[in-house]
Amino acid sequence: MSYDESLDFLYEMEKKHPELIKIEKIGTTYEGRDIVLAKISKNVETADSKPAMLFTGSIHAREWVGHELALKFISYMADNQDIDPSLEKSLTESTMYMVPCLNPDGYEYSRQHFSFWRKNRRKNHDGTIGVDLNRNFSIGFTKQSNTSSNVYGGEEPFSEAETSAIKAFVDSHENITIAFDYHSQGNVFFPAHKFMHEAEVDGTDMNALCANMNDEFAKVTGRKYGIHRGKPPAGLISGSGREYYYSKGIIAIVAEVGTKNIPDYMKSMSGSINENIPALKHAFSEVINYSAVAPKRVDEFTIESRDATSVTLIWQYEVRDDIFFEVYRSTKDKDACNERTKVGVVGGMSFTDTDLSSSTNYHYTIRAVNKTTGYKSPFAPVVKVRTWLEDDEFFKLIFANKSGTGYVGEFTQEQNRSHFGLNSLFVGINKSRGICDAVMSFDMDSIPKNAIIKSARFYIYPMNRVGAKIERFGEWNLSLLEQESFTEVTDFHEVENAKSKGVMGRAIQSSKLTQGIWNHWSFSKHECELLQEKIDKGEAVFRLDGPKTLPDGEDSQMMQFDIGYGQYGGGIHYRPILDIKYTLENEKIKLASDTRTTISVEKVEEGLKSGFDKEGSRVYGYLDFDLSQLPDPQTTMITQCALRIRNNNTFKTKSDVRYYVELVEVDEVGTYEDIKNREKIEYIGYEVAESDMGNKECQYFKFDTLSKQVLDAMHQEGKKLKLVIKPTSSLGMKNRIVEWNDDAELVIKYIPKRRTAVAKVENLKISKENKMIKLSWDKVEDEALTGYYVVRNSFHTPNHFMDGVKIYGGKDTYTYDNFASFDKEKYYAVFAYDDVPNFSEPAVIKYNPLEKY
Ligand SMILES: [Zn+2]
Predict the structure, then answer these.
(1) How many CA atoms lie within 13 A of 224 on its CB side?
(2) What is the crossing angle of helices 270-286 and 65-80, to 10°?
(3) 223 DSSP assignment
């Protein structure tokens, strides 16, 4: 629509729906056009008294989609206001303010004269034309001398009619809680960040809002947008509208829609608009939850404890009958917080999430809900936790090595070598580079040779998608290369033709490649076996490749992945990661029993028998084992245990007798009473039926998980293992006694694994050096020490090595926090770890901006 058509449409809508829509003029442009804002709300006269969302479109002239989307969304709201109950609710309790086009002069110039025009149409003092309106707001405003630049921000903040109009409106409307500024292109959200790299308390709100909108997009087009936050942006833009709105306490987000500024309407722009309508409807429904009537945010949301399969979360809130809490969980970074991810609805201030997978990263968020009104609170900052290992498990995070990681381009053979360790990974195809593949190499030396890989995940961070354009075609595949099939990883043809045993995990479709959100592949069992073969080779080399051909009219289909290094790298924590969970080949030991006794009503005698005597009373067999023959419990983990036993006699007639083995606590076995009144600790868990005893040479009583844990505890406490074989029958058996052979033995499988962490770090100190916060601590003197893990959390002390932003992992006894602000309070924790890794108790220190360091 032209701008005039757009105005006609808006006034027409106002005429048709006077109760719902009111059009207001908020300013006049340089060329004399009206800048208009549509207020949309049930009983629109009361609009300004309700919490509101602000939508701004096409502040950049050539980015047409914002304008078009606004008009379509206004139609949608008018048509569905009495049909869709959730929309009706939003329109009743909230207001939508929409400026379909904040740059009418530029927009018309782009439509009629030069489609690539971005700025407004003001005449600058030196005769050049135009100011980039999205650099003309006050927050971080920088004055530039080059007025012909496409990002020239004007003489001073709000020098332009368009920006001062929206400023005046926002300043006089404190009811705005959420603002979306619609741009193109990139299919990515850019939430506000206050020019800081640290987490803000409402960072999770913005990520969750975008992620929930992603779920709406996915229903329509299968697409998810990137969410570019939580990682240092390469260049922070100055004087943007978004940062101005955010400075007023508004949740402010830029949406970059589509893959071209002015796309094929039927093929692309219509899809972008269709997917954004339900997404905007969702965002609109959240407006009330950020207003004064919403419950307040949950405080001190943190991890109380975790083991291999469960996590317990705790938080603080005033005690109120009308409040409950919703807990959301995902294994993905920046995932939605909606019905799909909701795992708990609780009244108290703790929640235990069960049946989780071991050694897996989980992300949790929480919000309070008012039972009466249904209004929800903002989110507590996300909590990240990694479930603990099972007894026989270890994990290793292996980062891609620098020299073996880079991309190779078909037309860039001369430079391919220089990409390694320096350039982020370009994967796909474009006109100048040709086909491009990434190569990522991982040293496998840190994994023991006798490791058995139980699971593996491959993480990679897609970046800068605005520059690396992605249309909706093609797929990206990860494969594990056979080292014998190539000699030089920097040669395009060798890499392209290298052999692999197939693709790992599932291919990632173009629509699922979202910048700013970690992507991961989970390996199947077969793929884990392929990876395991690489342990002996000492290195695993992966190839990531994308589409190999370009359809007519397209010039690029290229994604860029971070390697952590180089000019645009996000730091070493953004390297590709191989997350491996493994166990070790078991060692086996057989223990002979120390004593074997039979206890019946009549007597206590040597030898092992059990059954029923002639009166029908039970005859118990008792045997014990000396566990001190096992290796040191501090470095040994029992993985399996079974009592192996043979019977010397069988019976001709059938019976229902079954034998149980119990772990018992008895001081001595002097009398029948001692055994009858025994303290039972645990059933071993497996029973043997007499009817099975004839046809097997040996009987195995296998220890179940709980009895194995008891055995493990006894081993640590240096106790004797005491077992009683107890017969049972429902038929009242008499005179039926099994004689067990004296060669009964305990078959124990175990692995060498450290049980407890190394000591906690001492003397953790903060200082300032080179304009950075520096942390230092004393070395932990222990041969078992593998390294230190340093975490920053802006809200609470990190209880867990995953609970915050990783600052450092390695052997040094100091680290710098390059991205920390001096002005913001925060907590640091240092964990010392061994090769399991077991993590020590955290050494914690608080950074106080008022203190001198
Ligand atoms: Zn833009």
Answers:
(1) 24
(2) 60
(3) -
